[in-house]
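Q: My labmate handed me this sequence with no annotations at all. I'd like to see what the chain might look like in three dimensions before we decide whether it's worth expressing. Could you predict it?
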Amino acid sequence: MTNRLQVGLDFSQKRADLCLLMPQGDLLEAHLPFANSLPGYEQAKALLLEAMERFEFDGLNISGEATGYYWFPFFQQLANDPHLKQHDLELYLLNPRWVKWFKKSFPEDDKSDQKDPFYIAERTRTRRPEVAWQPLSTMSLRFYTRYRFHLAQDLTREKNYFLALLFLKASAFSRIEPFSNTFGVTSSRILSQEIDLTALAALPVEQLAEVLVELSHNKLPDPANNAFKLQETVRQSFPLDPDLALPVQEVLDFTMAHIRFLEQQCQQVETKIEAALANYPAIQKLTTIPGVGLILASGIGAEIGDTNRFLQAPKWDKKRKRYRPRTLRDAEDAVAKLAGLWWPRNSSGDFEAEDRKLAKSGNSYLRYFSIQASDKMRHNISEYAQFYHKKYHEVPKHQHKRALVLSARKGIGLFVGLLHRNEPFRPKEGR
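A: Here is what I predict for the chain of 431 residues:
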């Protein structure tokens, strides 16, 4: 066994709790709390350097648990520290699930900041992760794409809230759909407080159509049909209690203003993503996939990062009974696991489960971007359209969801291949 100091780090907003283990697993320091700040880091660094010199260790393994973003500044400082690099520093970032499952192999113990650093250090000491952690080259792009993801979630939530309130104002509006887009400019003005919807609908169809032409700046293709549907909406909707009309209308206006703000934020962050993408030529190649636009390509590329990080550790070959270098297919499988787009086996003895459940664990951002991209690709690439329809008709239930997820898993291979080879998309017949 190599003579390396094992360090476990448990992060919170205020503290970084350390545990130091000898190479054989003996405790050197059971628990040492430091502030999760630059002065706290300097104190922890001085302690580690002193231990390295006193016990003459050959190297230093530091393992931390990925808790939100609390781990990131401390790890960045560790990775860039020239004094620690002189001691053959290796950093390992552990998924909290790994530590939780590993802890179950021990007698039941407290879940506390005093005990967790030991299990983090012991997990790396007894089962070292295949690849050491390094700062991700796409981290700057990732911040923008993840924020765009959160804006999209917020926008969906606000629109659903608006539609729920809209049922009180005009219960037939979403069913009859007088406008193709409820949140379009004309529709939002019609539903605002500045216009009396009931009085407007009382106008003759021809006159109402002229009003709609003016409100839409002559953008409606068939204003007479819009006018007829709007009248039907008012006729078929439940009347609202006059005491509730004003608060419902004002909350609708507030919600619409928030929706417009979120849409503006989306446009601004998309501009930032487009500018940042200029620094990543390999990720730009993903935009050549038909249907996969700037946002989805950037999100997928930012989460995957450099594909070489999935090819570093050797893989055990069951057939040849030896380790071999990883292939691009191995990298594809690793990225699929990272996204939670894989189906673990469930077997014991002679039992083999026929149904495999989607893992769904892992990087939810990568999973979201991949599934959204596969939905676009099936409409624009014949190969993916055929694959989608084949999987769609294989089962009687949950057809769309299953076919879409399987298409996303197929797309992972395409994304990894284009990123690794730094080449644009080519249709199957042109490969």
